[in-house]
């Protein structure tokens, strides 16, 4: 696999590298099965595993290497506490919907716990209390309002005024019985079980399109081959196939950051997140018999920042201000997708097709939502009842005032970015680029994107995004080209890292 040069390194994905995760073949001929699952992150792997357990024939396709995508760049908290969310949910969707959301996420957590027990997988799973805390008066009030929502919904939690953190807080709301784990230790073991149950995995097999005819659905691969099935599940984070769903107008991508620190202090149990902005999220993970502190936070719309490295620096400063740091051995960033009404889209891709399914839009809460999504998708595919079908239906009505205003705001932002990118004058001369630097340059009298690698070689690209034509921007933290419109990302050679784009950027040299 080609390594993308980057300023970031995820603790989770390094485990896969260290253990030299098994590689699976590329799809080099047509194949068929009952169910095709596209995308080997938490939703794809759990869906494939669960369907195989239910006796179904499944092929799992991954565009790159398995487990290197979004699931490898999380904070890996499995919790139904999603910051301050339940009061907002009650206001927007009503008490019953808020209760169902909590229950779906708790069921997702319990489903993961059950699998880990049944398969006897060592994945650093531990039960933890989740805390959302306030350090300002403004958010102190919000914490109290959130706790009232907990009381209404019967959520197991408490209102607190102290936490074992190295800075004072005004208040906090806790949620008991939550958990943390190492997601890739779990998923890599589940892939082994999946294959033992007869499942087939093809990696480095990007899907470019989906076709439908009387024989079923066909995932069309970049190399021209097709993998056919009665059902297809799209678990690619951003739904790359977007003909009828218009998902690109209903999802907006956000990037956020995580640093991992070895510190001298004894770290307390618990998973913490600030209600105040900028967000600060803290948890520890096992690290060679010691503890590694994970501090997450900061966020911005993908492709809409001039200095991505500054967010990592801000997290390192926060960590050093409150802990005695020996080292920052890892730091990475994540991309999350947020829907118009902040509830995920899980279910039938469109109301006119009951064989094509998707799950996306988990905001920053992909572990519990992802597990809930896998259960729901498997129930839909195998015609079993599931209480959360309507809550998460991608075809649900989002016509309330707040969703409509989010739709207008986000799409106006896309239109603004589309124009801004075309007129932006910031262009360097090619010889101004130092090794490992990228940016917009003048090339043959026109604007282009260039990256100079460590050896001095240049890769010059047309920076027109192959999704809908916005101008991609250089991301200094990840060394990638990111699109400010719908969040597609491309590596330094122009290859797609994240959709919705499926075509590479055009090379100019
Ligand atoms: Fe839509 Fe780039 S991701 S235009």
Write the layout of secondary structure elements.
Elements: H1 11-18, E1 31-32, E2 35-38, H2 42-53, E3 58-61, E4 77-78, H3 86-93, H4 95-118, E5 126-134, H5 137-153, E6 159-160, E7 171-180, H6 183-196, E8 200-202, E9 207-213, E10 216-221, E11 226-229, E12 231-234, E13 251-263, E14 271-274, E15 280-287, E16 290-301, H7 309-322, E17 325-339, E18 345-350, E19 353-360, H8 366-381, H9 389-392, H10 401-423, E20 437-443, E21 446-452, E22 458-461, E23 473-475, E24 480-482, E25 489-490, E26 496-498
Parallel strand pairs: 1-11, 2-3, 2-12, 3-8, 5-14, 12-19
Antiparallel strand pairs: 4-7, 5-7, 6-7, 9-10, 10-11, 13-16, 13-17, 14-15, 15-16, 18-19, 20-21, 21-22, 23-24, 24-25, 25-26
Helix pairs in contact: 1-6, 2-6, 2-8, 3-4, 3-5, 4-8
Residues 248, 465, 467-470, 483, 485-488, 500-501 line the site of FE2/S2 (inorganic) cluster.
Which characteristics define this entry?
509 residues, alpha+beta, FAD/NAD(P)-binding domain, D-Amino Acid Oxidase, Chain A, domain 2, Rieske Iron-sulfur Protein, 3 domains, six-stranded mixed beta sheet, 10 helices, 28% helix, globular, disordered N terminus, binds FE2/S2 (inorganic) cluster
Can you put this structure into words, describing what you see?
About 30% of the residues lie in helices and about 30% in strands. With about 500 residues, it is of the alpha+beta class. The chain folds into 3 domains: about 25-75 and about 185-250 and about 340-395, FAD/NAD(P)-binding domain (3-Layer(bba) Sandwich), CATH 3.50.50; about 125-180 and about 255-340, D-Amino Acid Oxidase, Chain A, domain 2, CATH 3.30.9; about 400-509, Rieske Iron-sulfur Protein (3-layer Sandwich). The strands form 5 sheets. Strands 4, 5, 6, 7, 13, 14, 15, 16 and 17 form a 9-stranded mixed beta sheet that branches. A 6-stranded mixed beta sheet has the order 8-3-2-12-19-18. The two termini are about 25 Å apart. The protein binds FE2/S2 (inorganic) cluster (FES). FE2/S2 (inorganic) cluster binds near residues 469, 470 and 486. FE2/S2 (inorganic) cluster (FES) binds near residues 248, 465, 470, 488 and 500.
């Amino acid at each position: 696999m080609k390594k993308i040069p980057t300023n970031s390194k995820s603790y989770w994905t390094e485990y896969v590298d260290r253990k030299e995760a098994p590689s699976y073949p590329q799809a080099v001929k047509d194949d068929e099965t009952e169910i095709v699952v596209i995308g080997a992150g938490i939703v794809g792997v759990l869906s494939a595993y669960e369907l195989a357990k239910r006796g179904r024939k499944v092929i799992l396709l991954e565009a790159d290497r398995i487990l290197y995508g979004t699931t490898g760049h999380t904070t890996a908290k499995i919790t139904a506490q999603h910051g301050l969310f339940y009061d907002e949910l009650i206001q927007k969707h009503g008490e019953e919907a808020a209760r169902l959301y909590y229950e779906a996420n708790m069921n997702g957590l319990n489903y993961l716990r059950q699998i880990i027990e049944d398969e006897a997988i060592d994945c650093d799973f531990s039960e933890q209390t989740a805390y959302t805390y306030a350090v300002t008066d403004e958010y102190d009030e919000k914490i109290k309002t959130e706790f009232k929502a907990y009381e209404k919904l019967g959520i197991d939690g408490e209102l607190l005024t102290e936490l074992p953190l190295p800075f004072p807080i005004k208040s906090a709301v806790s949620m008991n019985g939550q958990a943390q784990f190492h997601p890739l230790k779990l998923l890599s073991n589940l892939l082994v079980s999946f294959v033992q149950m007869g499942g087939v995995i093809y990696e480095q097999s990007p899907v470019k399109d989906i076709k439908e005819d009387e024989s079923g659905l066909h995932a069309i691969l970049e190399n021209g081959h097709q993998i056919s099935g009665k059902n297809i599940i799209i678990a690619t984070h951003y739904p790359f196939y977007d003909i009828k769903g218009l998902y690109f107008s209903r999802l907006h991508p956000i990037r956020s950051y995580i640093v991992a620190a070895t510190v001298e202090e004894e770290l307390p149990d618990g998973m913490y997140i600030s209600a105040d902005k900028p967000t600060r999220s803290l948890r520890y993970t096992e690290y060679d018999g010691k503890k590694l502190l994970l501090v997450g936070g900061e966020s911005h719309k993908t492709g809409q920042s001039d200095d991505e490295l500054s967010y990592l620096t801000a997290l390192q400063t926060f960590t050093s201000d409150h802990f005695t740091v020996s080292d920052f051995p890892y730091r990475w960033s994540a991309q999350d997708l947020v829907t118009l009404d902040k509830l995920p889209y899980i279910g039938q891709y469109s109301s006119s097709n009951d064989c094509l399914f998707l799950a996306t839009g988990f905001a920053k809460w992909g572990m519990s939502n992802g597990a809930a999504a896998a259960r729901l998708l498997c129930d839909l595919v195998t015609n079993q009842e599931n209480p959360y079908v309507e809550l998460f239906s991608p075809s649900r009505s989002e016509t309330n005032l707040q969703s409509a205003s989010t739709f207008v705001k986000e799409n106006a932002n896309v239109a603004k970015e589309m124009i801004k990118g075309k007129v932006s004058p910031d262009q360097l001369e090619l010889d101004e680029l130092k090794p490992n630097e990228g940016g917009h340059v003048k090339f043959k009298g026109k604007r282009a994107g260039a990256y100079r690698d460590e050896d001095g070689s240049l890769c010059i690209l047309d920076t027109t995004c192959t999704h809908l034509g916005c101008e991609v921007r250089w991301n200094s933290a990840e060394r990638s080209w990111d699109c400010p419109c719908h969040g597609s990302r491309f590596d330094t050679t122009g290859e797609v890292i994240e959709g919705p784009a499926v075509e590479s950027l055009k090379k100019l040299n």
